[in-house]
Specification:
357 residues, mainly alpha, Rossmann fold, four-stranded parallel β-sheet, 4 strands, 5% strand
Length: 357
């Protein structure tokens, strides 16, 4: 969109043809021509992927470019190497066709993953709706029980009041109360039982309300992560324009726990956002003594709650509090959770401000 504004491209926002789709179609058409638009696009891609271009510049054979592509593909580092090889003078038709085939199959896998996430969101929303309905039913039953109890209490008070107003003698009271003694005892017993049931129902209602709040928060988190992943997948991965507004300003981020196979992609994301990345596995292979040193060097700390021990998580929190370091917990060890975490207001004041401040 920034390039479209720079070229003063005219678009019309309609339901049938979104603005992003119009810009996409225009630039796909323009890159096949030699004009100002294609030159600006080429310049933009060269600037964005300059590090990959510098790395590929030293390669002069098809075999070296093949090795570079397969290594980048295995690490999940796709956009930069893809552009640097496509624009390389030693590119062959064979290599170009293989790269296109790999990207095509990768798009199928990303689409399948998005479908699974969408279905998961739908199931959570359905469960949330059922829990809300159940909570409403229990609340109605609770009110009904309260009314029944109040009615019984009112009857007992009225009966006691009538006895007191008459100011009768002890003998007369005994005569009157004797036939009702069993009923009073039963009513008192019923009151105790109703009170116990009401207490139990109140506890169940509170538990259901806590569960509903948890599911609502979980749905919001999944929506945020799914939005980040959809933006990343539809515009070239975690290097899209939508997250270029995030700037870590050279600050250092410590990532504790998670899965080894995702570390390369997490590191790449942080470095592309102008940050430095430190990783500690939470005590799986590396010593927990190293964790204190890592926290001291970091400007902020994150860790996924689904892939870290309770002991390691508690130690991270203590170290951060002792060193006055900000930290947040990530819902999962996926890259979408990290993107969402980097947008968190807790980290904004520490990571997204300039070092001069």
């Amino acid at each position: 969109r920034n390039l479209g504004r720079k070229l003063k491209v005219q678009t019309v926002k309609t339901l049938q043809c979104p603005v992003d789709y119009q810009l996409h179609g225009l630039f796909v058409k323009e890159v096949g021509e030699s004009n100002i638009a294609s030159k600006l696009i080429n310049k933009l891609l060269d600037k964005r992927h300059s590090s990959s271009i510098r790395k590929a510049r030293s390669m002069g054979t098809e075999a070296e470019l093949f090795d570079y592509w397969f290594d980048s593909l295995s690490k999940g580092d796709i956009p930069g190497p893809y552009w640097s090889i496509l624009s390389h003078p030693s590119l062959t038709v064979k290599l170009a066709e293989r790269m296109f085939a790999d990207i095509h199959m990768l798009s199928h896998m990303v689409g399948a993953s998005n479908q699974a996430d969408i279905r998961k969101l739908q199931l959570l929303e359905e469960n949330l709706s059922k829990m809300e309905e159940k909570a409403v039913r229990k609340q109605r039953q609770h009110l009904k029980n309260l009314k029944a109890r109040d009615k019984i209490v009112t009857e007992l008070r009225s009966e006691l009041k009538r006895i007191q107003v008459k100011k009768i003698t002890t003998t007369e009271q005994e005569t009157i109360l004797s036939p009702n003694r069993d009923r009073i005892y039963q009513l008192n017993h019923d009151i105790l039982q109703l009170s116990a049931k009401i207490k139990s129902k109140n506890m169940i209602i509170r538990q259901n309300q806590d569960r509903v709040r948890y599911l609502e928060a979980l749905v919001d988190q999944l929506n945020d992560e799914n939005t980040s992943l959809e933006l990343a997948c539809s515009h070239g991965g975690p290097f899209a324009d939508e997250i270029e507004t995030l700037n870590l300003n050279g600050k250092c981020l410590l990532y504790v726990g998670g899965r080894q196979k995702t570390v390369c992609r997490l590191r790449k994301l942080v470095e592309d956002l102008n940050g430095r990345f430190i990783y500690h596995d939470g005590g799986v292979e590396r010593s927990m003594k190293e964790l204190a040193s890592a926290v001291t060097r970091a400007d902020a700390v994150v860790f996924p709650v689904d892939c870290i021990s309770h002991g390691a998580a508690n130690k991270v929190k203590r170290l951060c509090q002792q060193n006055l370091k900000p930290f947040i917990t990530l819902r999962t060890s996926g890259i979408g959770s990290l993107i969402t975490g980097l947008k968190d207001e807790t980290l904004n004041l520490h990571l997204h401000q300039s070092t001069a401040n």
